[in-house]
Amino acid sequence: MPSPTPERSRNLRKIIHVDMDAFFAAVEQRDRPELRGLPVIVGGDPNGRGVVATCSYEARRFGIHSAMSAAKARSLCPQAIFVRPRMEAYREASRQVMAILRSYTPLVEPLSLDEAFLDVTAGTANGTLAGEIAREILDRIHQETGLTASAGVSYNKLLAKLASDWRKPHGLFVIPPERGLDFLAPLLVGKLHGVGPATVKKLSAMDVETVLDLRNLSLEFLVTHFGKSGGWFYDVARAIDERPVQPSRQRKSVGTERTFSKNLEDRSVMRTTLQEMAAQVAARLQALNLAGHTVNIKARFPDFTTVTRAHTAIEGIGNAETIVALLPELLDRAVPQGASVRLLGITVSGLAQIQAASRGARQLNLLDEISDLR
Ligand SMILES: [Mg+2]
After folding, report:
1. Is residue 16 part of a domain?
2. Choosing from 28, 58, 115, 242, which is the catalytic residue?
3. Could you tell me if residue 147 is inside a domain?
4. Ligand 1 centroid distance, CA of 94 (Å)
5. Structural domain of 322
6. Which end of the chain has fewer CB atoms < 10 Å from its terminal CB, N or C?
7. Sheet of 149-154: strands edge to edge?
8. What is the pLDDT of residues 265-319, one digit of tens each?
């Protein structure tokens, strides 16, 4: 039996906010070792009207930040190296990161390519600490993608997001329930979710600079001056935020892809690689209790042109053997004889839940029962 939980934390959620560190720039430094340790700016043309999308920590020391004009960035740091964004590479890394997050809970809400909220309340029902889960997530992201992330852990989204910023880069910070109010008190009101520059200005005119100042205003006063938002300001000043973690959408496909450090030329190597990937996809389908109707394969050639080929079946496709059986035909359709590839991928789409209770579904039910008992 789990040990009794203190009364006050009984209904508290466990939320993790994961945020990749200098994401685009970090992907560039990972893929191009000669850029490591240097001020790297990913964004537009410094000779034109481009802006900074992301910059490395080395560039931040010069006062460069996202959304600054690239020309200004260059005047602050003439030796900076400007790199054009490679969105496909960032999407690939993002998919890897999100897949890691989804292996902990289906309750993952991506906010952008490089950050997401997770609700791990169910995963902590057995006594595991949310901080331990977050630590493991950061380690896995680092091992599996070669990139670093930071994480914040708390009992709501507001605090979890603030916490992930606290020990950047590659840091973890936990705000336990009893520390929420004190943590917020000295922060500037502009740090609060939903408090934009116009509100900061208006509050400043009322001598309200910090969250503690804001906490001294009555609900009535706030609603009078800020309308509906006043209620939100009243709550967040008290670390109250009931917004749920909302998984973005129904999953439409399960897939994996691999970019090779050296282009693959040998067809038999392509086949074995695809077979390994089919096994991974099948394992994920099984874990999610899903089967699909279409197998897609994707190939990218050295000149970056990309093709996809699909096979749709009437029967549900859920195990590795069914996927593997379709691979020779799909490979022949996607990759001409003699061609080499820099990327291969397999996706199963047209997903539907398998009705019979699987092991995964039973585990979820069991967790529900445990949390009901507590
Ligand atoms: Mg980030």
Report:
1. no
2. 115
3. no
4. 11
5. 253-353
6. N
7. 108-112, 115-119, 15-20, 149-154, 172-174
8. 999 999 999 999 999 899 888 877 788 888 999 999 999 889 999 988 777 788 8
